[in-house]
Model the fold of this input.
Amino acid sequence: MPRSVPRGAAPGGLTVFDPTGFALEDPIAFGVLLELANDAGIGDYVRMEHLPEDTLNPYAFA
Done:
């Protein structure tokens, strides 16, 4: 049985996975951790923000 190749991919070609993105589980898990830390009275609020000049380029750091 021949090996199937995904549509748009060349046999023996290179596939690049770009893991930038935001999974649904991220804000849910983060919310649970914030609530637990708040209940335990631990942790510090730290503002984390990145405002790139090119919003379509996740690798652009100003």
